[in-house]
Design a protein that fits this description.
single chain, 140 residues, mainly beta, Jelly Rolls, 5-stranded antiparallel beta sheet, 6% helix
């Protein structure tokens, strides 16, 4: 099954906080559509930097800006869609084989990424033209 940018969805995460402040709990298979195997985060990213610039053959991602804001563009070989992440109670689901780029980071941005696989450098497609060839002609 081929993934498209329409499969990339924003999820509202329930704020379980009270008068003391906010709190969000993310549970694999419940609040997001996969079991969590890996968590990583970026911080101190220069506003002019573009991160990501790849697709993953096997990993689904869920991105939450726990602090600050950034934009995320997704591309499926034909269509492009842009999301702005600026609240810690919203996250973006990006399925495998979707090209992703993160940019326009606020100075205080902390972007957390949850994945359903452990890290494997060989599953990353980092060349956009190669990616386009794979998704537009998967049998080649």
């Amino acid at each position: 099954m081929t993934q498209t940018v329409d499969d990339c969805k924003l999820f509202e995460l329930k704020d379980l906080g009270d008068e003391r402040g906010g709190m969000v709990s993310i549970e694999g298979g419940k609040s997001i559509p996969f079991d969590i195997k890996r968590v990583f985060y970026t911080f101190g990213t220069d506003k002019k930097a573009v991160r990501g610039c790849h697709a993953n053959r096997y990993s689904d991602f869920f991105i939450v800006n726990v602090k600050g804001s950034a934009k995320v563009a997704v591309f499926d070989g034909l269509s492009r869609k842009e999301f702005e992440l600026s609240r810690p109670d919203f996250g973006l689901f990006i399925p495998r084989m979707i090209w992703k780029e993160m940019y326009d980071f606020s100075e205080d941005c902390v972007m957390m990424v949850l994945a359903d696989t452990h890290y494997d450098a060989t599953e990353y497609i980092k060349d956009l033209e190669k990616y386009k060839g794979i998704v537009t002609n998967p049998n080649a």
